[in-house]
Amino acid sequence: MNQQTDVLNDGEAVKVRRLSSDWLRLALGIVFVMTVIVTFSYVMSDRPVDPKNDGAFKLAFVDDFDRPATSSGLNSAKVDNWKVVTGNWSVQISGAYIIQSDPKQSLALVKVDTTSMLVQAKISGNARCGIVAGAADANSFVSLFRAPKFGVWVVNRVANGKATKLGTLPDPGSGTQTISLSVSKDLIRVASGNSTASFVNREMGLGQMGGLFALGDAAPCVWDDVVVQEAR
């Protein structure tokens, strides 16, 4: 009788141990999931990009294009920072325009001292126009541009000429919008109006140029009030 009782007690003890082990694994699993969720939420949280209040950046370049019109190029006697990479750019009526677009993409860039930077501009026009940051050359950069067909701003990461879509922001229309794009070795942040988004950047190096960008025909586009800031 005592042997039978001992066997039952041993069986109950095994069940208790198994139950305790199951609860422990469940608790550890919950802790792990919550940790992942909290970490992911922090990294991917939408943080407004405000160049005037972001202490991580300092002003490197400003251009309001308030100068006499030019037939070719964006530079003048007072501003000589622009490097036109592709496309025929000009200054007309206090804004930057493209007289003739490159069939693939048009780029006009400004160089700063760091690879971590913030680029902001006012953009109007119902075409695929926007800004770039962290550009090394015409084949490596991060871009934010309008996609009027879909009513969004598209965030692309271009490496060795190959574009990868990271995400989108809503676009309220073809009117003038102030957009901003900041890049660092870890994070890409974008903003348009009240909409913001963040993306992890761990797959590409960055260059020291930022500026203006368009895909295909960008004749309707106008860029104004360009601000480029660099990391402190």
SSE-based structural type: alpha+beta
CATH architecture name of the largest domain: Sandwich
Please provide the count of β strands.
15
Could you say what the CATH topology of the largest domain is called?
Jelly Rolls
Features:
disordered N terminus; alpha+beta; Jelly Rolls; 232 residues; 15 strands; globular
Word description of this protein:
The protein has 232 residues and is an alpha+beta fold. It has two domains: 44 residues; 175 residues, Exo-inulinase, domain 1 (Jelly Rolls, Sandwich). 19% of the residues lie in helices and 45% in strands. It has one helix and 15 strands. Strands 2-5-14-7-8-9-10 form a seven-stranded antiparallel sheet, with no helix packed on it. Strands 1-15-6-11-12-13 form a six-stranded antiparallel sheet, with no helix packed on it. The longest helix has 43 residues. The protein is globular. The N terminus is likely disordered.
Spell out the blueprint of helices and strands.
Elements: H1 2-44, E1 57-63, E2 83-86, E3 88-91, E4 96-100, E5 105-111, E6 117-124, E7 129-137, E8 140-147, E9 152-159, E10 162-170, E11 177-183, E12 187-192, E13 195-200, E14 209-215, E15 222-231
Antiparallel strand pairs: 1-15, 2-5, 3-4, 5-14, 6-11, 6-15, 7-8, 7-14, 8-9, 9-10, 11-12, 12-13
